[in-house]
Amino acid sequence: MMLKYPNIPVSFNLMAKPVGALCNLDCNYCYYRGKMCMYEDSPYMMKEEVLEEFVKQYINSQASPVVVFNWQGGEPTLAGPAFYEQALYFQKKYAGNKKIENSIQTNATLLDESWCRFLKRHRFLVGISIDGPREIHDYHRRGVGQTSTWEKVMRGINLLKDYNVPFNTMTAITRHSARYPAEIYEFLKDLGSSYQQYAPVVERYLKHKATIEPELSPPEIRIGAALTTWSVTPEQYGEFMVSIFNEWVRKDAGKVFVQLFETTLANWLGEDPGLCLFRKYCGNALMMEQNGDVYACDHFVFPDHFRGNIMNEPLLELALSQEQINFGFNKHNELPSMCRSCEFLFACHGECPKNRISTTPEGEYGLNYLCPGFKHYFSHVAPFMDHMAEQIRNGRSPLSVKKYARKLLSPK
Question: What is the pTM of this model?
Fold first, then answer.
């Protein structure tokens, strides 16, 4: 069956959460920890029969010769190496002629020598969640009882280095950390992170919910939701990324890869940016809980975006359901008119629907909250992206942008 959808050639991504929202940390900005209450009556870890069914269906549903399993959480290392050994067994059992790859996103606090040997032996791509130097990292990423986690994270990272396990970094940008772009960027470089992702934290909670754990609001809610105090402001986010870009483009282009800069250049060239946030359509990045429940996206784990359970319905049918197709198309179809006439639509495409919680000056709901920040960023990087795109189209190295940037950004 072929899907007549401009973004998915019957290959899709799925984020698997083997322990659901369970985590050994207590980060106050975490958008997922509140999902624990949705699965209070379910076993905290994925059962073997669910794991086997998932592996079999996920491999068989992919048209691509390479199938990537993305293990996330909560904290996925809580499942233990034995769980992943079982997953590898099932992957080998059902792989056929397809190549299988694995990635895992972890807070690194539970990594030990046994884990590192396992990750190295099976060539896992490891993503580390770390927010910067100790004071910045510990501001939000705390352990149970609000204890520091930074030293445990660094111990895990140093073990990965000892065992030559490659890793990249995921850094959350909050209202607090956005004040320190230079410190964070230099820290991550010194850490050895040559592939960096920066995730702006934008969350709202339902004001009428009088619970100990604030319930996050889906973007469709227009009234009765308030922005969390740790959400980054649009202006902060734009300036944060511009500050890092200025350092990167003058010194580190070709050595350090920053996800936002890579996707921006791809869109400037008219190519697939490889990231749903900046594609015209989305819908090809689903999420599965530990019991086999599938949702439209990791940021849309709400009842209205539940697609079904793989133990009852084939995963491929859930991924290609009309509801999921509509979800993906709506990323473009529901853009406010202000976005449709924006000069940077080709590069932004409204970013993630989860952040479309603002109103345009004309009163249209659905504007991306971060829009002013993105406009600032895209306006600033435009001449450099133009330069790199032109170099690439003419068969020359885009790294000449460093010399170009040093001249353009030199103090007047």
Answer: 0.93
